Amino acid sequence: MICNVEINLTPRRLDVYLNEKFSEWSRSHIQKMIADGLITVDAAQVKASFKLTGGEEIFIKESDAVEVEYLPENLPLDILYEDADIIVVNKARGMTVHPAETVKSGTLVNALLYHCKDLSGINGVKRPGIVHRLDKDTSGVMVVAKSDAAHINLAAQIKNKTATRTYLAIVHGVLKDNAGIISGAIGRDKVDRKKMAITPDGKPAVTEFKVLERFENFTYVECKLQTGRTHQIRVHMTAIGHPLLGDSRYTARKNPFEIKGQALHSHTLNLIHPTTKEPMQFTAPLSDDIKKILIQLRG
Question: What fold does the segment set 166-265+291-298 form as a domain?
Fold first, then answer.
């Protein structure tokens, strides 16, 4: 696998850069891969501390140390739509999208492998068919590619913003503005590598929000992504002082409701079908845990 380093990169260590790019690999695992000669920079073997300055070509050797085969599992799978090219699913809160170093089973990929034998192979055996991701504790609609051609087409739509996503969330506090736009480049947090943050050297990120309902201490909002950065809505809403309910990673505020993880749901997905070229919209019903919270807030 080849990873081309962006030209305008702020100089950083090789192991740090790869940990940012491939969050499913721990930094210690990446360091071992480098020491074992599985990762080279511009065809040369280097140390984990090698300083990238931009424009380098990183080669990651495809091997058992990097990718292993994951097994199909007969897990519950809520399929909203399926044809020869794509599968659209309603991912449950608490389900990890694809295997990682510490998660080998019970993922959406394991369930998809059981259900479907012809997933796109572009992302290798760890992430077959996965065009975009949802956090483990975010529920809702996702599209999965069944062929390489569909995968390339869908990835281009997401990059070019012709595929759009709308999320529903409950946030702490009462938003004063009925609508707004949050802009802030997002990158890996310099202190806690498991978190993302608004940073000067991050990637551009823009989130639109609209208030749906206000309550005494919470607000029900709709969020639209203009970009698709890791933890984008979670980071942006925290940045304006309204972190997501239940998001223990980004806020210490108490969660008085029964919900495991952040109250965030991927509600709608609009795209152009990769083969028929027809516009399509998919909607995932609001998760039961968020429905229950809204009933309590309204009561």
Answer: Pseudouridine synthase (3.30.2350)
Nearest to 103 by CA among 128, 79, 68: 68
Residue that the structure tokens 């968020």 belong to: 290
CATH 3.40.1130.10 fits 67-160, yes or no: no
Judge whether 2-60 and 67-160 match in fold.
Answer: no
- Pairing between strand 86-91 and 279-283? unpaired
- β-bridge mates for residue 206, sequence order: 183
Arithmetic mean of pLDDT, 98-104 = 73
Check: CB of residue 211 under 8 Å from CB of residue 237: no
pLDDT digits (tens, 9 = 90+) for 11-69: 999 999 998 887 667 788 889 889 988 999 998 899 999 999 998 999 988 654 444 56
Would you kindly state where each structural domain of the chain is located, as residue ranges? Answer: 2-60, 67-160, 166-265+291-298
pTM of the model: 0.78
Kindly tell me if the per-residue pLDDT of 89 is higher than 90. Answer: yes
Choice among 135, 137, 247, 289 that is catalytic: 135
Q: What pLDDT is recorded for position 62?
A: 62
Evaluate the CA torsion angle 41, 43, 46, 51 in order and state its sign.
negative
Distance CA 45, CA 30 (A): 14
Architecture of the domain spanning 2-60: Roll (3.10)
> Could you report the per-residue pLDDT of 198-219, keeping only the tens digit for each?
998 889 999 999 999 999 999 9
Indicate if 118 belongs to the active site.
no
Residue 78's φ and ψ, nearest 5 degrees, are -90, 100
